[in-house]
Design goal:
The protein has about 210 residues and is of the alpha/beta class. The radius of gyration is 16 Å and the shape is globular. The mean pLDDT is about 90. Bound molecules: S-adenosylmethionine. Keywords: Methyltransferase, Transferase. InterPro entries: Methyltransf_25, SAM-dependent_MTases_sf. Pfam families: Methyltransf_25 (PF13649).
C-alpha cells in the first residue's frame, strides 16, 4: 500500500529536517507583517511595533519546521502553526521554546483540510507557503480571515525546477488570480511571480478581506 501524504511528510521531516525547505524565511512574510500596521511609524521594528502587533493573530498553514512561523511569532503576533506532521509540530514547538518565541504560540497537529472547513478561529494574517495538492486551498484559507485580515499565499511556479513532483498540480498565476478574484469579499488581489537566486520561481498571492 502507498504511504499517505501525512506519513510521507512526517518521514521526510524526521529524516531530512531543515534540509527540506532551508531555515531562511520567505521575505514576503516580513512585508505582510508590515502591511498589518496602518501606522507607518510603527513599522521599522522595536517595542512600539511589537505592541501594535500583539493584539493581532496569525496562522501558518502547513507550517513545517516553522521557518516562517518564527518570523510571525518574533514580530509579536499571536501565532498558530498547523501541520499534520507531528514530527514537524513537535520540532517547531521545541525550537520556539529553546529560542524564546513560544509566547502566544499554538501548535496544532491536524489535517488542515477538515480543520479549515470547521474551525471557528479567525486570523488577521493567514499564511500558506508551498501548500500544493490541496483543492481550493486559497478559498479555504481566505475563509479564515478576520475582517481586514491579510492573506499571503506562496506557491512554486509551474516552471520552477524546485517544488512538488509532476503528478501534483501547480496552479499558474492566472489560476491563482482567478480563484482569489472569485471571492467577492477579497480586495487588493495581487499575484506576482518572483525569481529566487536566479534558480527557482514562486507565485505569490496577496489579498485583503474587506473590513
Ligand atoms: C512544502 S512543505 C512547506 C512547509 C512550510 N510551509 C515552509 O514553507 O517551510 C508542506 C507542509 O505542509 C504540510 N501539509 C501538507 N498537506 C497538509 C494537510 N492536508 N494538512 C496539514 N499539513 C499539511 C506538510 O506536512 C509539510 O509540512
Amino acid at each position: 500500500m502507498e504511504p499517505d501524504m501525512r506519513t510521507l511528510w512526517n518521514d521526510r521531516w524526521a529524516e531530512e529536517g531543515a534540509a527540506v525547505e532551508g531555515s531562511e524565511p520567505n521575505p514576503e512574510v516580513e512585508e505582510a507583517i508590515a502591511g498589518l500596521l496602518p501606522d507607518a511609524s510603527a513599522r521599522p521594528g522595536g517595542e512600539e511595533r511589537g505592541n501594535a502587533l500583539s493584539a493581532l493573530r496569525a496562522v501558518d498553514l502547513g507550517a513545517g519546521l516553522g521557518r516562517n512561523t518564527r518570523v510571525l511569532a518574533r514580530a509579536g503576533l499571536q501565532t498558530t502553526a498547523v501541520d499534520f506532521s507531528p514530527v514537524a509540530i513537535a520540532a517547531l514547538c521545541e525550537h520556539a521554546a529553546a529560542e524564546g518565541w513560544d509566547d502566544g504560540l499554538v501548535g496544532i497537529t491536524t489535517d488542515l483540510v477538515p480543520w479549515m472547513a470547521t474551525t471557528q478561529e479567525r486570523y488577521d494574517l493567514v499564511l500558506g507557503c508551498y501548500m500544493h495538492g490541496i483543492d481550493a486551498a486559497i478559498t479555504s484559507a481566505a475563509g479564515l480571515l478576520s475582517p481586514g485580515g491579510h492573506l499571503l499565499w506562496i506557491l512554486h511556479a509551474p516552471d520552477s525546477p524546485h517544488g512538488p513532483p509532476p503528478q501534483i498540480h501547480r496552479p499558474s498565476a492566472e489560476e491563482v488570480f482567478a480563484e482569489a478574484s472569485a471571492l467577492d469579499y477579497l480586495t487588493d488581489v495581487r499575484v506576482e511571480t518572483v525569481v529566487r537566486d536566479e534558480r527557482f520561481s514562486d507565485t505569490i498571492l496577496t489579498a485583503v478581506r474587506q473590513g
